[in-house]
Amino acid sequence: MVRVKAKHKITTLLAIVLLLLSFSTFSFAATKAELLKGKKIIYIPLDDRPVSYDYVNDTFKNLPVQVLIPPKEWISHRTEPANLDKIWNWLEKEALDANVLVVSADAMVYGGLVPSRRHDLSLETITERVEKFKKLKQINPKLQIYTFTTIMRTPRGSVGGTEPDYYDIYGPQIFRITQLLDMKDRELLIQPSEIEELKTLQDQVPKMSQDDWFARRDINFKVNEKWIQWAKDGLIDYLILCRDDSAEFSQSQREWRKLKPQSLGLHETRFHAFPGTDEVGMLLITRAINDLTFSTPQIGVIYAPGVGGKTVPAYEDLPFEENIAAHIYALGGFPALNLGSADLVLMVNSPFKGKTLEANQPVNDDKSSKQHLVFTKKIQEQLLLGKRVAIVDMAYGNGADRGLMKALSGQNLLYKIDGYAGWNTAGNSLGFALSQGYLSETYLTRKEINRLLTIRYLDDWGYQSIVRNQVNQDVIWPKKINGTDLSESQAYVEAYVGLEMKDFISEYLKEYLPNDIRFKKVEMPWSRMFEVLPILEN
Fold it and tell me: Does position 538 have pLDDT exceeding 90, yes or no?
């Protein structure tokens, strides 16, 4: 009898503890929301692409904190630089009572990401623009400035005007030249054939083109030196140095090795450098929210079967597990020591053999492999444990893994998770899944989460992995339309893409789509086939 009573007391005490913990968790969540009320974050994006502007705005517009973004018409549009005079006038007024400024350095110095690669600005003009940042701390000494800047990308090739015009012709050769120069710097260029290849390529590419490309990079290098120094001096409170479209051997790597020693002494609470760019605005706003609410989230990570975190993704230059850790720290969190303590579990769909292919290749089809099924089961397990889950879909570059998506839909998991991303590079997907997944914990309703997930499914899965290929085959190539500049064909292409997207929804999403979410249309904001902006009905 005594034992029964004792057992009853223990059970009662446990119930009370659990109740208190539950109340404490609720109270803390409520407290975080209260802490954000009246706070203001200013955000200056890279450019006006959906990933930089629309998707970020959609994520933060319903939060208790004010996230202020300049009007879209002032922001860089493709090759057109931002209207910096208007932005600066606006920024100086808004900064008076702002708590945090999240700012793209490339936007405020060169006018945008693409202009940073094509500008003819003098070093004097650029220096003047950099120095203007000092004024912000004079206007508001309490303003926290979170800046992200890029080491200029070294793409294997490029068309469509996002690089200097000569890159359309000589891009692959220039990329290979920098690969060989990087190997030479590291004393890895030991084969006579490689030495001869370097000389041949340098003779093939016009000297004027090489000089122009390296000179612009030299200016960018000097500017990045300045940002690092200002992070050390405290003018910049937190700095991310992004390696945009890099590779293990490239000019981007050469420049990072020279900049890295200059960052020594900067604590990880002040500075990080990693592959990625387009996702960093989203990441830094989330960090600002964590800092304003004194939050340090723990993030757990689970990989799909295979090589996992050791994968070095396409367009990047280090194992993905290192990039994940860097992004978690940049968010203001830290990797969870165990999954039980994790506030969010990142499920990483990594390629089984450690090689990321392109999402538009035939191998990316609707067949779910054993790997997909095992991975999906792991996701189910975490959800059953009550964990919030976000999926980083990086098995393919520039789109979703179709086999994984079929497995997720087959188990009715599409709208049970809290975040998903599978667009562009692995780092890009990581930043979106991490930020949106974490914010769902406290600040987003299930309806808001579902709308964000739907946009990602329409973009990353529907358009990037399926529809874009179909439209290229049906319209772009037969009608000889320039896919990098749609021009007068844009309205026709948008309408055609919209119809194909409706077909995608009918075949893949209709059964699972929440009743209150309806697809309206698509826009091609940069008048090219690379990206699309799905628009939902209000």
Answer: no
Cα atoms in the Cβ-side hemisphere of radius 13 Å centred on 442: 24
SS3 label, residue 366? coil
Average pLDDT score over the chain:
93
Each residue's pLDDT tens digit, 496-519: 999 999 999 999 999 999 999 999
State the SS3 of 156-212.
CCCCCCCCCCCHHHHHHHHHHHHHHHHHHHCCCCCCHHHHHHHHHHHHHCCHHHHHH
| Amino acid making up residue 32 | K
The one-letter code for the residue type at 251 is Q
C-alpha to C-alpha distances, 469 to 265, 409, 425, 462, nearest whole angstrom:
48, 22, 18, 10
Helices (H), 186-296: 192-204, 207-233, 251-259, 280-292
Q: Which residue has the higher pLDDT, 11 or 391?
A: 391
- Section 459-478 average pLDDT: 98
Q: How far is CA 148 from CA 2, 42, 102, 283, in A?
A: 65, 14, 8, 10
Q: Is a pLDDT exceeding 80 seen at residue 83?
A: yes
Nearest CA-CA partner of 137 in 171, 105, 98? 98
Q: Which residues pair with 478 in a beta bridge?
A: none
* Residues 514, 447: Cα–Cα separation, whole Å: 9
Nearest partner of 148 among 330, 400, 289, 19, judged by Cα? 330
Domain boundaries of the chain, sorted by first residue = 1-35, 37-293, 295-440, 460-536
- Fold observed for domain 295-440: Rossmann fold (3.40.50)
pLDDT in tens, 319-339: 999 999 999 999 999 999 999
pLDDT at 392 (0 to 100): 98
Of the candidates 303, 410, 398, which has an alpha carbon nearest to the alpha carbon of residue 366? Answer: 410
Rounded Cα gap, residues 105 and 82, in angstroms: 12
Task: Write the Ramachandran bin of 471: left for phi over 0, alpha for psi from -120 to 50, otherwise beta.
Answer: alpha
pLDDT at 466 over 60: yes
